[in-house]
């Protein structure tokens, strides 16, 4: 059986005694679970002592997890997936006090069905991404008592198309936030200097996303008619065609936006919609993060759908 090993860590600015109750009691997990955001209506069953729970959903699948051993530095669990395919894994958390608060590590060891041997690297990347999303939400729960992230599923919509001027970039996935912000600043400054009329929301088109290598390619775009003058170096004109899209709206901090992206992908895999090839998924922004609190930032992710 192909072996699967995943480990991710995070620093939390809170003492161990504030972090541990969020981990060692499964009844607290819905507050920061990286999977339940994709299907909040998932049916959950908890043991009275909070040491076991079972989940069942059409998007999240079916499975159960049980705490098996706890020391002063580590918590071990047995994780069993039942649907969409059976698998058993060992997972757990390690923690240590630091000068900043607590360092938490989430790890998993297990195996994949033999017929999925070619997916080991991609599964390690995907599960690692899920673990990191969960740890980031755990961090907010421990530090602030809440997670500034809300995901809403708007279903299939009609996108009327868009003409845009954009800048296309390649970068590490971890750097996309600051890089895209700088692209938006440059584009907005150009629009203002030309006194151009904006015809729609800013867009970011996800041209390529490689979780295994941690690299991405994207286009940051503004919807404008640029007129007859030549575009600055590095700018280009493009078009998104009219199409049906499955829309997912995220309200909250941009650092948690992957909750919405991952949830949309999970909905597609669960058969709630089928992705359309040939048109890249894209984000649109319903307000300006410079003008609202981070928990009020609204981003809509549009998945082209058949």
Automatic annotation (TrEMBL):
Pfam families: GyrI-like, Polyketide_cyc2. Gene3D superfamilies: 3.30.530.20, Regulatory factor, effector binding domain. InterPro entries: GyrI-like (IPR029442), Polyketide_cyclase/dehydratase (IPR019587), Reg_factor_effector_dom_sf (IPR011256), START-like_dom_sf (IPR023393). Residues 167-304 form the GyrI-like small molecule binding domain. It comes from the Bacteria. CDD domains: SRPBCC_1. This is GyrI-like small molecule binding domain-containing protein. It comes from Haloferula luteola.
């Amino acid at each position: 059986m192909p072996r699967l090993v995943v480990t991710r860590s995070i620093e939390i600015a809170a003492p161990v005694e504030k972090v541990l109750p969020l981990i060692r009691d499964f009844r607290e997990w819905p507050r920061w679970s990286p999977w339940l955001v994709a299907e909040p209506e998932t049916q959950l069953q908890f043991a009275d002592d909070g040491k076991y729970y079972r989940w069942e959903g059409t998007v999240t699948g079916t499975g159960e997890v049980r705490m098996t051993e706890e020391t002063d530095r580590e918590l071990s669990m047995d994780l069993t997936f039942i649907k969409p395919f059976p698998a058993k894994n060992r997972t757990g958390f390690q923690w240590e006090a630091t000068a900043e608060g607590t360092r938490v590590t989430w790890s998993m060891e297990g195996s994949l069905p033999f017929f999925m041997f070619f997916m080991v690297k991609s599964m390690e990347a995907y599960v690692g991404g899920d673990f990191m999303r969960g740890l980031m939400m755990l961090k907010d729960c421990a530090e602030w008592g809440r997670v500034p992230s809300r995901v809403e599923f708007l279903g299939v919509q009609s996108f009327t198309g868009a003409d845009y001027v954009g800048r296309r970039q390649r970068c590490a996935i971890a750097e996309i936030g600051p890089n895209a912000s700088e692209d938006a600043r440059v584009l907005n400054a150009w629009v203002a200097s030309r006194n151009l009329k904006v015809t729609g929301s800013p867009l970011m088109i996800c041209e390529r996303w490689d979780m295994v290598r941690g690299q991405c390619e994207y286009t940051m775009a503004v919807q404008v008619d640029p007129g007859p003058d030549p575009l600055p170096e590095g700018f280009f004109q493009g078009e998104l065609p009219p199409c049906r899209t499955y829309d997912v709206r995220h309200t909250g901090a941009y650092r948690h936006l992957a909750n919405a992206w991952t949830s949309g992908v999970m909905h597609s895999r669960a058969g709630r919609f089928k992705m359309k090839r040939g048109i890249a998924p894209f984000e649109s922004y319903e307000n300006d993060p410079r003008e609202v609190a981070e928990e009020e930032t609204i981003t809509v992710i549009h998945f082209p759908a058949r």
